[in-house]
Structure formats: C-alpha cells, structure tokens
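Tokens as discussed.
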C-alpha cells in the first residue's frame, strides 16, 4: 500500500512531531510542578537525555509516546501497514535504545518512571499515577500540605475579591481533583 501523501508532504508532517515539549510532556510537567517538585529538562549528560530529572530525589520521569516507544497493549501502538520494512526496525531500535538507557540510569542509582502518552489523556488518572510515583519520596507529605494550602488560599482569594479568579488548571479539573487521590496514600 502506498502513502497517500507525496514524499515532501510526508516529510513536512513528520518534521512537526516534537520530541521535546510535547502536549503529554507539558501536562506531566504541570502536575509535577503543581505538586511542588522542581526538575531539570532533557539533561544532556545522562543517558538518553531524560525528559524530567529530579536530582534531589534521584528520580527520572520519562514521558513516552505510545506509538513511537511501543506501549504494549495500547491501541495507539499500531504499526503502519505501508513501508513495514522501515517501521519495524525503527520501532525495535527505539525500544532497544529505551531499555539500554533505562538500564544505564538504574545502574547510576536513578529511579526511572515511565509515563505513557495514553496515561495523560485523563487528568485524574495522571494525577493518581504521578502521586504514586511521588508517594515514595520523603517530600510527599509536604506536597500534599502545599496543595491543601493552595486550596485554602484559592477559596479565600475568591471570597475577598467577590469575583471569579482566573483559572490556571486545565478545563474540568481543580485543586480538589488532587485531594481525593492524594488522601488515599499512606503518608506516614
């Protein structure tokens, strides 16, 4: 089966696919930042230039696209029907490189967590997933307290101003969407 686009058009389409600053990565960054954690982006001196590096916690967060990194069992992880002699080795190379980089990072003492693109489609599930990741860090209690403080400040701010504050959350979620997920974790 041949491609429906010309080589030039296909090249233009493929060139627009971002490896840094993708929508899933931006969502993950936003949640982690709102939890109060600070990170470095795409650190060049670590294997694979990981997406987010939390040095203080020895934690690496990788945000992988289901299609490009072959998320097992995911409906987005399909193989194109055309030009399979190109795609299959490409995908195998991606997976091999991912495993090699993750192994090297673990050998260096880093904890590596992978967030898949499909996990970023639901804000509450993403928050729950990242809460599980950070539940293993010492500062998780502090992050929960910061969220509660923010919720109190948001409520007081609305009462004082008498008008609706500009929302900085993605539509359909608020600080209260974090709380039920976080409360269920063992915080001792």
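Sequence:
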């Amino acid at each position: 089966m041949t491609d429906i686009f010309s080589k030039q058009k296909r090249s233009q389409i493929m060139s627009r696919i971002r490896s840094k600053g993708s929508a899933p990565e931006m969502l993950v960054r936003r949640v982690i930042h709102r939890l109060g954690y600070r990170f470095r982006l795409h650190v060049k001196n670590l294997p694979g230039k990981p997406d987010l590096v939390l040095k203080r916690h020895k934690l690496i967060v990788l945000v992988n696209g289901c299609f490009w990194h072959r998320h097992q069992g995911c409906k987005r992880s399909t193989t194109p029907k055309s030009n399979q002699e190109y795609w299959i080795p490409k995908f195998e190379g991606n997976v091999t490189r991912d495993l090699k980089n993750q192994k090297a990072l673990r050998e260096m003492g880093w904890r590596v967590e992978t967030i898949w693109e499909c996990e970023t489609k639901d804000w509450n599930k993403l928050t729950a997933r990242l809460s599980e990741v950070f539940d293993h860090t010492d500062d998780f209690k502090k992050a929960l307290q910061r969220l509660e403080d923010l919720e109190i400040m948001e409520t007081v701010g609305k009462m004082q101003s008498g008008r609706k504050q500009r929302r900085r959350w993605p539509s359909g979620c608020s600080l209260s969407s974090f709380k039920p997920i976080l409360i269920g974790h063992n915080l001792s």
